[in-house]
Design brief:
- The structure is a single chain.
- The chain is an alpha+beta fold.
- Among the domains are: 231 residues, Isoleucyl-tRNA Synthetase, domain 2; 145 residues, Orthogonal Bundle (Isoleucyl-tRNA Synthetase, Domain 1), CATH 1.10.730.10.
- It contains 40 helices and 44 strands.
- It has a 6-stranded mixed beta sheet with strand order 12-10-11-8-7-15, with helices on one face. A 4-stranded antiparallel beta sheet has the order 6-5-16-18. It has a 4-stranded antiparallel beta sheet with strand order 21-20-23-22, covered by helices on one side.
- The chain starts with 39 loop residues before the first helix and ends with a strand.
- Belongs to the class-I aminoacyl-tRNA synthetase family.
- It catalyses: tRNA(Ile) + L-isoleucine + ATP = L-isoleucyl-tRNA(Ile) + AMP + diphosphate.
- This is isoleucine--tRNA ligase.
- InterPro entries: aa-tRNA-synth_I_CS, aa-tRNA-synth_Ia, Anticodon_Ile_ABEc, Ile-tRNA-ligase, Ile-tRNA-ligase_type2, M/V/L/I-tRNA-synth_anticd-bd, Rossmann-like_a/b/a_fold, tRNAsynth_Ia_anticodon-bd.
- Keywords: Aminoacyl-tRNA synthetase, ATP-binding, Ligase, Membrane, Nucleotide-binding, Protein biosynthesis, Transmembrane, Transmembrane helix.
Length: 1187
């Protein structure tokens, strides 16, 4: 017998079988919610196996020479710990890349780190108490940057630990970092290439600005954190110079701090504006539609009669907004009046002014509003490159020429003082507050302001058409993110500000003369070394800021100096396809031929305006190609209450606790099989992870456990190793054929869906299949696998089950790498030439679909059989007929004659056994049992038919039976010229009973796929006895479980009626045992016997009392099988030696029953016993008896 049979594999494998149940009980399969189904130790053992065998690198080595599958990994920051969003994205990436490797590709997987930018600087600012630029310069940029470098990889080990713990295979040794010299040099090349293409310029732009971080943010960064806040909402008057009515324009603003920089007012040229006099005599000019905003005016609906005014109010004049153009007004603050009075303090016109809020008059502070800046430039209030009043410093505090008490105050804190000053001037018309959505800095969590800043820009608007075209060349999953969210973002994209006036980042490689006339852009370190004559090892600011480049205009002209800016870290991450390869300085041919664009990228929904966007912009600008071909976009993982996960609120469980408690596979499958893979939000719930263990892993494991138990049993009984690849073990049983075909169908489906990156469709099918495997194949085949039809049939069933589990391991390996690996390690022991088989499931190819075993008919028939069984169970439940009570007859009605033939043929026994019925009839004619009625689907048809709905609905309800049966078959009909389908008409059945049949004794129902089931519910004594026999078997099986017995453990059953049991109950018990003798033998190996027949030396295992439905109270006792010795015959065989006979008898009774049975089988019924050097040959049936 081969020694490499299936054996225990750690905790969740089956322990070695023993006939001593008390000494070696099997492991419990019930999940302990506190420990998880697969323990932390088990998964860590797999991790150790992968580490010991260098499995990831070995996989890469084995796949060398295959076509390259290119994956780009978006770089996270290592200044924080990984959360569920990272685990989710990492799981998606791991599933897809493992699948790609199993389907014939070589997949390089490099981890990346985002090392520059605000997240790092913000941590150092907190650590060193840095408040602004002066603090950094006082410390020194060099020391500041080195502080940043020191913390960049602060949590890298924690990241590596968590990522590897989740089962993800990715290369940390050969990772890329955005702070590496080579990476930064490629970023320089990208910038210079864009410069040479005239796609970069330097200009002013009003941008979201973080006063806490002293830097502008991109528009997509500003959209990351919006909050509802309460802000002041004031209406301020602006007296019109030289107005005959002494009127004042009134403007509404929620940013009083911008009023010191007011340079203009803006109105909509097409709106009607009114001069309205209030009871106090003041005349205000505002949009007619916004009169209700003034204090004292009653609230009026938009469009209401403007003449219907409160007492004391009067409309003096009406004009169009265009008639107000160029009116001049008195400045509210004089801080910039001297410099700006010639061009400023006038009324401008623009269509961006709306009448849905405010007064229809918008105050313009061009330094703090994008539209303000545009309008003021267009109207000559300010000029590009000219003076732009901006009395707010980098920290968001007022500076010169704004005086005390505002000087030095943060603008938000100065609001109250400014409002008080305006009130003292007599120009505060109204002061209230408003709650509105306002952007916050995603890093410092402080309110943003909008502020004009100098920046380098990429001309995104110039390449917008190409961006939209390249977007169409990619495939996004789910597609609506690409077609709507990302498309709309590209369609409305503005030029991209790529520079930051910061310190820790890749320096902008621009050297400029003092007069701005001479500019040099460097695209490599070699170029800069050549221009400066210096050797450069590091290109961070503190290593190159001091380098000067001689002017091309001669030695008398001051040298060129580097601009202060560094690249936005989004620019660096968008450049990662090139920079991680040090392109074009290295790997140029390899990059261009093989690894660009990427086959696959994946990140969260927020990256549509982040990394996905920057990848697309730079690849389009550089190569006019998308950077990726396929993209999977996941949604956000929220706390269970629907709120954002927050460390301070502690509203989510620690990821490491979940990993240790339930295992990585359970967490992976929970995340993949959730709405979050369809870019929808997921409310993370710990009980959902537990449900995956219960609903997926437990049934999967139980199918595997059942296989191992029975393989070991049959090997023990036959002394032959199990070989699932023997040529004579092809499945001929209908369920063997069905599970083989269903497995092939699943392989085909999963392959197709994964090829199309639809992960969210794969897992539900895998879960359904595992349910079918356990609930149909294993459940319906239990008696067969246990030997009901002989050893050969058992081997065929075990072979079918083995092949399914092996295929399932290979198919599920990308999703559940730990569980699949552990199970595969045991299953591979049965593979031919085990030592030459793949040592890891992750080295195996994805299973191939086998056309030879595909059988659509059997798949349909089994599915319909299951529908019959489910419908039959429902009928039983609603009629209070438990499954233990046999029923006489069931009729199944369906139009498919092949299904009915299968149901009467190979599938018949499964239906009869599962539903406990005695007779199964079939019919193709539903009209024998029911009438058909049709109901129109009003929700669907109403929209399409309109007024014709009533007429068509009436015709549908009156459809003749023949037409309805035809519609059932074809799913289509035409009524009064309107074609109708199954979506338009609902078919209903009304069942009837034959004449003379009691309606209480029959019931019917329509199941899935139009399966009609009719059951006769009447009972008689014979049915009651059969039910009692099933109940008895059930009691005995529970007793076996209580005794810790395995399915393969043979026992004898004895019963003892209670002393006071009446004669009638005793007779009923004996009657059912005699009547159901064959059934009891088939289920228990032998029928139960009276306790009086129990051998005196039989070892009792467990006993318990119960009351059967017949009313009989009995005590059941399970004993170990034992031999019966014929003392006279034994003495004769021992040459009439009493002493020898006693010794032989003692030896025989001390041996295991199964051991004696096997020896007799091998010795043709002869048993040899050796005692004191004497051999005694005993014959079964003569000197001893085997039951």
């Amino acid at each position: 017998m081969r020694s490499n049979c299936l054996r225990p594999i750690s905790r969740f494998a089956l322990e070695a079988q023993s006939t001593n149940a008390a000494s070696t009980r099997p492991p419990k399969t019930m999940i302990d919610k506190n420990l998880g189904f697969i323990s932390r130790q088990e998964e860590e053992a797999v991790l150790e196996y992968w580490k010991r065998t260098n499995a990831f690198k070995e996989q890469l080595r084995r796949s060398e020479g295959r076509p390259e599958y290119v994956f780009y990994d978006g770089p996270p920051f290592a200044t924080g710990l990984p959360h569920y969003g990272h685990i989710l994205a990492g799981t998606i990436k791991d599933v897809v890349t493992r699948f790609a490797c199993s389907t014939g590709y070589h997949v390089t997987r490099r981890f990346g780190w985002d090392c520059h930018g605000l997240p790092v600087e913000y941590e150092i600012d907190k650590k060193l108490g840095i408040k602004g630029k002066e603090d950094v310069l006082r410390l020194g940029i060099g020391k500041y940057n080195e502080e940043c470098r020191d913390i960049v990889m602060r949590y890298s080990k924690e990241w590596e630990k968590t990522v590897l713990r989740t089962g993800r295979w990715i290369d940390f040794e050969n990772d890329y970092k955005t702070l590496d010299r080579n990476f930064m040099e490629s970023v320089w090349w990208v910038f210079k290439t864009l410069w040479e293409k005239n796609l970069v310029y330097k200009g002013f732009k009003v941008m979201p600005y973080s006063t806490a971080c002293n830097t502008p943010l991109s528009n997509f960064e500003a959209g990351l954190d919006y909050r509802d806040v309460s802000d002041p909402a004031v209406i301020v008057s602006f007296p019109i110079v030289g107005c005959d009515l002494s009127a004042s324009l009134v403007a509404w603003t929620t940013t009083p701090w911008t009023l010191p920089s007011n340079l203009a007012l803006c109105v909509n040229p097409t709106f009607t504006y009114v001069y309205a006099r209030e009871p106090g005599g003041n005349v205000f000019v505002l949009a007619e539609a916004r009169l209700s905003t003034l204090p004292g005016m009653r609230k009026r609906d938009k469009g209401s009669n403007p003449e219907n005014l409160p007492e004391g109010w009067e409309i003096l004049r009406k004009v169009l907004g265009s008639q107000l153009k160029d009116l001049r007004y008195e400045p509210i603050f004089p801080f910039f009046e001297a410099d700006m009075k010639v061009t400023a303090y006038k009324v401008c016109c623009d269509g961006y002014v709306t009448d849905d809020s405010g007064t229809g008059v918008v105050h313009q502070a061009p330094a703090y509003g994008e539209d303000d800046f545009r309008v003021c430039i267009a109207n000559g209030v300010v000029v590009k490159g000219g003076i732009l009043p901006d009395p707010v410093d980098a920290n968001g505090c007022f500076c010169h020429p704004v005086p005390d008490p505002y000087l030095g105050k943060h603008v938000k804190e100065a609001d109250k003082d400014l409002i008080a000053a305006i009130k003292n001037m007599g120009r505060l018309v109204d002061n209230s507050r408003i709650v509105h959505s306002y952007p916050y800095c995603w890093r410092s969590h402080t309110p943003l302001i909008y502020k004009a800043v100098a920046s380098y820009f990429v001309k995104v608007e110039d390449i917008k058409t190409r961006l939209l075209e390249n977007n169409k060349k990619t495939r996004w999953v789910p597609p609506h993110v690409q077609e709507k969210r990302f498309h709309n973002w590209l369609e409305n994209a503005h030029d991209w500000a790529i520079s930051r006036n910061r310190y820790w980042g890749t320096p902008i490689p621009v050297w400029c003369s003092e007069d701005g006339e001479e500019i040099r852009v460097f695209g490599s370190i070699a170029e800069l070394e050549s221009a400066t004559g210096k050797v450069i090892d590091d290109i961070h600011r503190h290593f190159i800021d001091h380098l000067e480049v001689p002017s091309s205009r001669g030695p008398n002209v001051p040298p060129l100096k580097r601009v202060e800016d560094v690249f936005d870290c989004w620019f660096e991450s968008g450049a990662m396809p090139y920079a991680q390869q040090h392109y074009p300085f290295e790997n140029k041919d390899y990059f261009e031929r093989k690894i660009f664009p990427a086959n696959f990228v994946a990140e969260g929904l927020d990256q549509t305006r982040g990394w996905f966007y920057t990848l697309m912009v730079l690849s389009t600008a550089l190569f006019d190609r998308p950077a990726f071909q396929n993209l999977v976009c996941n949604g956000l993982v929220l706390a269970s209450d629907g709120k954002k996960m927050s460390k301070s609120l502690k509203n989510y469980p620690d990821p490491n606790e979940i990993l240790n408690k339930y295992g990585a596979d359970a967490l992976r499958l929970y995340l993949i099989n959730s709405p979050v893979v369809r870019a929808e939000p997921l409310r993370f719930k710990e009980e959902g992870v537990f449900a995956v263990l219960k609903d997926v892993f437990l049934p999967w494991y139980n199918a595997y456990r059942f296989l191992v138990q029975n393989v070991r049993r049959i090997e023990s009984e036959t002394h032959m190793s199990f070989n699932p690849f023997a040529s004579d073990q092809n499945g001929i049983n209908v369920l063997d054929r069905w599970i083989a075909s269903a497995t092939t169908s699943l392989v085909t489906f999963v392959k197709n869906e994964m090829d199309n990156y639809r992960l969210y469709t794969v897992v539900p099918h895998l879960v359904t299949f595992i349910g079918q495997l356990t609930n149909i194949y294993v459940r319906y085949n239990r008696s067969r696998i246990k030997g009901k039809n002989g050893v050969d049939d058992t081997r065929r069933a075990l072979t079918a089950l083995y092949n399914v589990l092996l295929t399932l391991c290979k198919m599920m390996a990308p999703f559940t790498p730990f569980f699949a690996e552990k199970m595969y390690q045991n299953l591979r022991r049965c593979l031919p030439e085990e030592g030459k088989s793949e040592p890891s499931v992750h080295f195996c190819s994805f299973p191939e679909a086998s056309a030879a075993v595909l059988d659509h008919r059997v798949e349909k028939s089994v599915a319909r059989m299951q529908a019959v069984i489910e419908t039959g169970r429902q009928i039983r439940e609603r009629n209070n007929k438990p499954l233990k009570t046999p029923l006489k007859r069931m009729t199944v009605v369906h139009a498919d004659e092949h299904f009915l033939a299968d149901l009467q043929g190979e599938l018949r026994d499964f239906v009869i056994e599962e539903l406990n019925i005695q007779q199964l009839d079939v019919s193709q004619d539903p009209m024998k049992f029911a009438t058909i009625k049709a109901e129109p689907n009003f929700a669907v048809l109403g929209k399409r038919l309109g007024k014709a709905m009533g007429k068509i609905a009436k015709a549908v309800k009156q459809m003749p039976q023949d037409d309805l049966r035809s519609f059932q078959k074809t799913g289509a009909c035409v009524i009064d010229g309107y074609p109708l389908s199954r979506d338009d008409i609902t078919i209903k059945f009304e069942f009837f009973t034959s004449v003379g049949v009691d309606t209480k004794n029959i019931d019917a129902a329509l199941g899935e796929d139009d399966v009609m089931v009719i059951i006769d519910l009447a009972t008689d004594q014979q049915l009651l006895d059969s039910g009692a026999a099933r109940e008895l078997v059930n009691r005995i099986q529970k007793l076996r479980k209580a005794g810790g017995l395995q399915a393969s453990d043979e026992v004898w059953v004895f019963f003892e009626p209670k002393m006071l049991t009446d004669r009638k109950s005793m007779d009923a018990l004996h009657r059912l045992i005699k009547a159901e003798e064959e059934y009891l033998k088939s289920m228990l190996s032998r029928e139960p016997r009276h306790i009086s027949s129990k051998p005196s030396h039989a070892v009792s295992i467990v006993s318990d009392s119960c009351t059967l439905s017949t009313g009989t109270e009995i005590t059941l006792t399970l004993t170990r099988p034992c031999i019966s010795i014929n003392k006279d015959a034994l003495r004769s065989a021992c040459d009439d030696s009493e002493e020898l006979a006693a010794a032989v008898s003692a030896v025989m009774l001390s041996r295991e029953y199964l051991s004696i049975a096997c020896e007799c089988h091998e010795g043709d019924g002869i048993l040899r016993i050796s005692v004191d050097d004497r051999d005694v040959n005993l014959k079964a049936g003569k000197e001893f008896i085997l039951a």
